[in-house]
């Protein structure tokens, strides 16, 4: 029996993270980590939760975009099969009027991702499986049916994708078992926010190594002399064998990136992340060719067409998928397949609020059923805001423990939702009152 | 004395164009041409009008995005100088939290464009000049100060832009005079919508030639045999010397585009527009290399970084700016300068609602002060919805007459705004009543 979606709740949820300088980088000095959050609910009480991640102002616009997708969901059968999940993704990304707002980029595309991911949460819970296992239990034919190959076929056809997935079928069970036993490699960005003092950077870098992380990341791009000093301090703190990635958050021109990374190269940065505009495929290729450090990008890449070109142009050494910027699981599956075709490792972006929870499923599925490898792969981890989730990401000795609870791990606690609703939640009411008292 | 912006009105305005199949193409079968419309007003009663163009659903999201920009405008001095117009553009596109929603793409970027264009309307009216003349009266130094060169400097530096503008200074007055006397070349898309019958296509194509147009455009991409038949009919109707451009509206894979255009080539299409994804720079380059017809794109290109790469990759023969998708006059000035640097002609996209009115100013300014040429240049014209504007675009013998009224020509009549507000305007109320009566 198919159940019908009867409710579609949208919440504007914001956390006042800017007060602590958590998450500060060269382009984002004062983020308030936020979620435009959607709950879809069926007549028999099943739920799926999903969200867009934003950094404060504009979260209401993302919520309005999710709201615009309501007619594609409510009153329809709950999407609980690969066929239905494929149809929902197609319908949400091909609404001929809404598509104009992107196309397939920006707020409307992120909103489609929120609803698609909510549907995956619902479907996986219905199957009693975490999303990574739910995906890994599908046949290659079911998996390719989930992908929109439009604009990809000059780089990856359905048949090539099918061949890749079939080639990775042997060993799925063993790799899943290894994941459950060992977890997936992680790195931590917590030491390296640009707003932190040198002392805090050194202390947190040492703590990260003590906690078992084999890789940390520093934000760079504010001032070259500061960055050289911070990189030198970090290298001294963690020793020669721990990887230090650096992240410019789109701060540079191509020439700046080449100059800056040439200056940082003696301290052996593992990769330079987002050296320039996320739209600049040819710029990333020029940065990669112009200096010795490997290039990573993707958290702001708008869609699969941008990822396709980053791979075609040999512009990146690492593909950094984000769980909540593109149109959800379906488009990320396309990106995982593209990366596998080009032999480029996927190292997901995470952090924010709920991004670690979501993206671990995609990396683990990639390991089990697409790339079949975790060599050179690592998922970002930031130790923020996990306490607001019913099934938070768990790090053990620098590795993500494989989720065992059914669903997508990104359901917020009802009391966290209630407290952080913007502008009416008590967390925000209290701040306004404090501002009025202390002018 | 500087006046202050005191009001910021936002309207969701929609026209029920889908009822006539006007504007139908391979990707947009049923557009309701819409404007998320903003009016900024100063304390002394001066006004600036601007808008995002959308095709129906989602216009409310664009209106919400404009609303989010209110704090950057209200209570501030009215931006009526090049310095102030540059500062406003920077502030709107660099809001560190709102930027996350793009960055610089999709709804939030279109909203910035609406507000920026409203400010230009206000400033040009204050100067008593149409926007094209207001721009053409600025010095090269003032013009480059309006441009955000971030992410452009590997292709175009401030100094190169300044040199281009200085080189075009001689003859500005003569070209402006020629524009006023002769108008700017136009082409018409009105005959070629995909939903029109063969008979209507042939009749409208002949009328276009009789009206003095030297170029028409057909929508293609639905069915190859239909397109061959329609192209043959159109060619027979207009004769060998009238240009026929074709427009696939993003419908194809790279291979489809090559196959389809090879089949249409015997009928001498002038260009193929939007053959594939607007994000696919390398795909456009492959289409250009793979078949004999020239390639045009740009109406959905997200920002200057995409245009930069289209030019760097030699992916286009024509740059099709749109007045209302990027962040307004300032970013379009960057794109005009990029096109001039690479020697590629700019042939603006227009149509929709109000786009002809806006973009004519940019093409005319390009002719007077940037490229200095109208050879091979032509502005799209679609004969829809002009009756709703106070200063509608005027076509005389297949050419846009140079606007003489101060401002940006895109102010809607108050009665048109009132009638078409969604969902409460009488045009929409009447439709809902009709649907209730005829179920």
From TrEMBL, chains A, B:
Keyword annotations: Lyase, Magnesium, Metal-binding
Protein name from the UniProt record: L-fuconate dehydratase
One Pfam family recorded for the sequence: MR_MLE_N
UniProt cofactor(s): Mg(2+)
E.C. designation(s): 4.2.1.68
Molecular function via GO: L-fuconate dehydratase activity; magnesium ion binding
Gene3D superfamilies xrefs: Enolase-like C-terminal domain, Enolase-like, N-terminal domain
Keyword Magnesium: yes
Keyword Metal-binding part of the UniProt annotation: yes
Domain of life: Bacteria
Domain annotation Mandelate racemase/muconate lactonizing enzyme C-terminal: ranges: 198-294
Lineage start: Bacteria, Bacillati, Actinomycetota, Actinomycetes, Kitasatosporales
